C-alpha cells in the first residue's frame, strides 16, 4: 500500500479542480491556454493542501519510532536514518507499538514531489500567468500581435523583478563578507514570496473566519435572506441596464466602422473578426445594411487604423461578456427570490407539502418521486434546513475561535498553548497516525476554505470577479490562479507553525517535513523568522473584530458603494425596488405560463393545429400548381399566336394595290 494514498489523492484533487473550473469557466468558448493555465494553478494548490497531512503523518511516525527506540531498554544502539530501515532494525517492543500506516509514503518521494509542485506553481504565478492574462485580454487579431501586446504590458512587471534581483546581487558583491551561496539566495527569494503571501493571507483569513460562520447563520433566517435577495436584485438590475447600454454603444460604434469599411478594404478581415464576437441579432442587423460594391478609395471617407480596431475588438469582447454574465445572473437571482418567497408561503401550510409557484415543466425523476417528495421537501426547506445551518454555524464558530487562539499562541512551546499542536502531540504519543492525518486535513481544509472562499467572494469593480455558471472571464480566472499560487505556500507554513512542525518558528529540534526542507531555513533572515512570521498573524484578532462589526462594509457605504446594511435608509429603498422588480418578473412569467396553458388546452380540445395547417398548406400548394399549369398552357397558346403573326407577310395598303381586283375595288367603294 506504499504510496497508494498519494496516488488516490492526486486523482481526486484533479477532478475537484476540474469540477470547479467547469463551474466558473466555459470550456466551449474560452481559449484552451487560459483553461489549461488556470486548471494547472488550481490543481497544484489543492494538491499541496491535500498531500501535506500525509507528509506530517510520515514525519510523526519517524519521530515516534526514534523516540521509542531510544527509550526502549532493548535498543540496539544503531542510528537509523530512514523510516524503512527503522521498521527493520528497531526493537520488538517498538514494532509492537508502532504500526506502519497504510498511507505511509516511502523515503525520497516527498522531497522530489514538493520540489516539482512548488517551483511549477511559482513559475506560473510570477511568470506565465501574468503573460497569459495580458495575452487573453488583448484585442489583437493575430498570435504575434497578442504576444507583442502581452510583452509590452508586462515589461514593467518583469523589469521590477530584474531590478530587485540585480540590486541584491550588487549588494552581495559589494559586501564580500556576506558570502551568500545559491541555497541562501534561493531561501531569500522563497522568504520574500512567502512574506508577500502571508501579508495578504492574514487579511483574507481574518475576513473568512468571521464571515463564513455568519453567512451560514444568516442562511437559516429566511426573512433576512429574502430581504437581502431583494437588495441584490435591485443592484443587479442597475448593473444589467448599464451593461446593456454599454453593449448598445459599442455595437453602434461597430456598425459605423462596418459601414465605412467595405468588403474590398484590406482591413475588412478585422471587421469580420469583430462581427463574429457580436451577438447574433446584431450580426444580422449589420449584415442587412451592407453594400458590397462601394469603393473604399473615396478620399472623402476617413478609415480607422488597425490600432483603433484592436481597441474596438477588446471593447466588444468585454461588453459582450459582461452583458451575458449579468443576464445569466439575473435569471439565477430571480429563481432564488421566487424559491425564497415559496418557502415563506409554505411555512404556514397545514398540509406539510411544498408547493412551487412555477412548477417545472420537465417530468419528475425517480429521486423526486420516491425520495425527495413534496412532504420531504417541506420538512427540509421549512424546518430541518434552518437548524442544520445553525448547527453548522456554531461548529464553524468554534473552529474559528480555536484558529484565532492558536494564531496568537503558536510561538509558545513551553507550555504548549496552541490547541492544534496539543492535539497532534497527543496523537503522536498514542501512535494514532490516522487521527493525525484526519486532524491535519480538517484543520488545513478549514483554513483553506476561509481563505479561498474569500478569494471567490471578493469583487474589484469589474476588474476581478469570479461568477459561477460559466460566466467568469479569462482575466479573472487566471488572476485567481495567481492568488492561489501565492497564498498556498505561506498558508501551509502557517499551518506547520500552528502544529509546531516548523523549527524556524518553534525553535525545537524535531524532524522537519519534506515540505519545510524545500522551503529552506528561515534562519537566514532571522528578523523575518523571529519577528514578522510570529507577530504579524496576531493582527488576525483585529481583523476578526473589524469584520464582526462590518467596519469595511460601513466604510464602503460612506464612500458611495451601496452595501447591505439593516439600519440604512438607502438599503430600505433598494429593498423596496428589488421587491417590485421581482413582482414584475413574476407577473411576466405568469402571463407566459398562462399563454402556454391556453395553447395546450386548445391543442387537446381541437387537435393538433399544426397538422391541419400543414394539410391546408399542401392543398393550397396543389391548387397553386394546377392554376400555374393552366396559366402556363394559356401563356404558351398566346405565345404561339404571336409567333404566327410575326411570321405572316406584311400587307401594303396603297390604293393601286387595292384596285387590282375589280370586285374588291367595287366592294371597297
TrEMBL record:
Transmembrane spans: 6-22, 34-54, 116-135, 155-174, 186-210, 387-405, 434-455, 534-551
Region annotation (Disordered) ranges: 613-669
Phylogenetic lineage: Eukaryota, Metazoa, Chordata, Craniata, Vertebrata
GO BP: adrenergic receptor signaling pathway
Compositionally biased spans, kind Basic and acidic residues: 613-627
Keyword terms, alphabetized: Coiled coil, Membrane, Transmembrane, Transmembrane helix
Protein name: LMBR1 domain containing 2
Any coiled-coil regions, as ranges: 233-260
Membrane topology field: Multi-pass membrane protein
Family: Belongs to the LIMR family.
A Pfam family this chain is assigned to: LMBR1
Subcellular compartments: Membrane
One cellular component (GO) term of this entry: membrane
Composition bias, Acidic residues: 658-669
Organism, as annotated: Astatotilapia calliptera (Eastern happy)
InterPro entries tied to this protein: GPCR-associated_LMBR1 (IPR051584), LMBR1-like_membr_prot (IPR006876)
Amino acid at each position: 500500500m506504499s504510496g497508494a494514498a498519494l496516488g488516490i489523492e492526486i486523482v481526486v484533487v484533479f477532478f475537484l479542480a476540474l469540477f470547479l473550473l467547469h463551474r466558473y469557466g466555459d470550456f466551449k468558448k474560452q481559449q484552451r491556454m487560459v483553461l489549461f493555465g488556470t486548471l494547472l494553478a488550481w490543481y497544484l494548490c489543492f494538491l499541496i493542501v491535500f498531500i501535506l497531512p500525509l507528509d506530517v503523518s510520515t514525519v510523526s511516525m519517524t519521530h515516534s519510532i526514534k523516540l521509542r527506540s531510544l527509550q526502549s531498554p532493548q535498543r540496539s544502539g544503531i542510528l537509523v536514518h530512514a523510516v524503512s530501515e527503522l521498521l527493520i532494525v528497531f526493537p520488538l517492543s517498538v514494532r509492537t507499538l508502532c504500526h506502519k500506516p497504510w498511507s505511509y509514503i516511502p523515503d525520497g518521494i516527498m522531497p522530489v514531489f514538493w520540489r516539482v509542485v512548488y517551483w511549477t506553481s511559482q513559475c506560473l504565478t510570477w511568470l506565465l500567468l501574468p503573460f497569459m492574462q495580458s495575452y487573453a485580454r488583448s484585442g489583437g487579431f493575430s498570435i504575434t500581435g497578442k504576444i507583442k501586446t502581452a510583452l509590452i504590458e508586462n515589461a514593467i512587471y518583469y523589469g521590477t523583478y530584474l531590478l530587485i534581483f540585480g540590486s541584491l546581487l550588487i549588494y552581495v558583491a559589494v559586501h564580500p563578507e556576506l558570502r551568500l551561496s545559491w541555497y541562501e539566495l534561493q531561501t531569500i527569494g522563497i522568504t520574500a514570496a512567502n512574506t508577500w503571501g502571508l501579508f495578504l493571507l492574514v487579511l483574507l483569513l481574518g475576513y473568512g473566519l468571521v464571515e463564513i460562520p455568519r453567512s451560514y447563520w444568516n442562511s437559516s433566517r429566511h426573512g433576512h435572506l429574502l430581504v437581502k435577495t431583494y437588495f441584490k436584485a435591485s443592484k443587479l438590475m442597475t448593473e444589467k441596464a448599464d451593461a446593456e447600454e454599454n453593449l448598445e454603444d459599442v455595437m453602434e460604434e461597430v456598425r459605423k466602422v462596418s459601414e465605412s469599411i467595405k468588403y474590398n478594404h484590406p482591413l475588412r478581415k478585422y471587421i469580420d473578426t469583430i462581427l463574429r464576437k457580436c451577438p447574433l441579432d446584431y450580426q444580422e442587423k449589420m449584415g442587412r445594411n451592407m453594400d458590397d460594391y462601394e469603393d473604399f478609395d473615396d478620399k472623402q471617407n476617413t478609415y480607422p487604423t488597425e490600432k483603433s480596431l484592436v481597441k474596438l475588438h477588446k471593447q466588444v469582447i468585454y461588453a459582450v461578456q459582461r452583458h451575458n454574465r449579468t443576464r445569466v445572473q439575473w435569471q439565477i437571482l430571480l429563481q432564488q427570490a421566487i424559491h425564497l418567497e415559496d418557502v415563506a408561503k409554505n411555512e404556514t401550510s397545514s398540509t406539510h407539502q411544498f408547493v412551487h409557484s412555477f412548477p417545472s415543466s420537465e417530468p419528475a425523476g425517480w429521486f423526486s418521486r420516491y425520495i425527495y417528495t413534496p412532504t420531504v421537501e417541506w420538512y427540509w426547506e421549512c424546518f430541518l434546513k434552518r437548524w442544520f445551518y445553525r448547527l453548522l454555524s456554531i461548529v464553524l464558530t468554534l473552529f474559528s475561535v480555536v484558529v484565532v487562539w492558536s494564531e496568537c499562541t503558536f510561538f509558545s512551546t513551553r507550555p504548549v498553548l496552541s490547541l492544534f499542536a496539543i492535539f497532534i502531540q497527543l496523537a503522536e504519543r498514542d501512535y494514532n497516525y490516522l487521527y493525525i492525518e484526519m486532524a491535519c486535513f480538517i484543520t488545513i481544509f478549514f483554513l483553506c476554505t476561509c481563505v479561498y472562499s474569500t478569494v471567490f467572494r471578493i469583487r474589484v469593480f469589474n476588474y476581478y470577479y469570479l461568477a459561477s455558471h460559466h460566466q467568469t472571464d479569462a482575466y479573472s480566472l487566471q488572476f485567481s490562479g495567481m492568488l492561489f499560487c501565492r497564498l498556498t505556500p505561506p498558508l501551509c507554513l502557517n499551518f506547520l507553525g500552528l502544529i509546531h512542525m516548523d523549527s524556524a518558528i518553534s525553535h525545537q529540534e524535531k524532524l522537519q517535513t519534506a515540505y519545510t526542507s524545500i522551503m529552506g531555513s528561515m534562519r537566514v533572515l532571522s528578523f523575518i523568522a523571529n519577528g514578522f512570521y510570529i507577530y504579524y498573524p496576531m493582527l488576525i484578532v483585529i481583523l476578526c473584530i473589524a469584520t464582526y462589526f462590518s467596519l469595511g462594509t460601513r466604510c464602503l457605504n460612506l464612500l458611495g458603494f451601496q452595501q447591505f446594511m439593516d439600519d440604512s435608509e438607502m438599503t430600505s429603498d433598494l429593498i423596496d425596488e428589488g421587491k417590485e422588480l421581482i413582482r414584475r418578473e413574476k407577473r411576466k412569467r405568469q402571463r407566459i405560463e398562462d399563454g402556454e396553458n391556453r395553447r395546450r388546452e386548445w391543442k387537446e380540445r381541437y387537435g393538433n393545429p399544426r397538422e391541419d395547417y400543414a394539410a391546408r398548406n399542401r392543398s393550397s400548394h396543389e391548387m397553386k400548381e394546377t392554376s400555374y399549369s393552366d396559366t402556363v398552357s394559356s401563356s404558351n397558346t398566346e405565345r404561339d399566336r404571336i409567333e404566327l403573326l410575326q411570321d405572316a407577310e406584311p400587307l401594303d395598303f396603297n390604293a393601286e394595290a387595292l384596285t387590282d381586283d375589280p370586285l374588291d375595288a367595287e366592294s371597297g367603294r
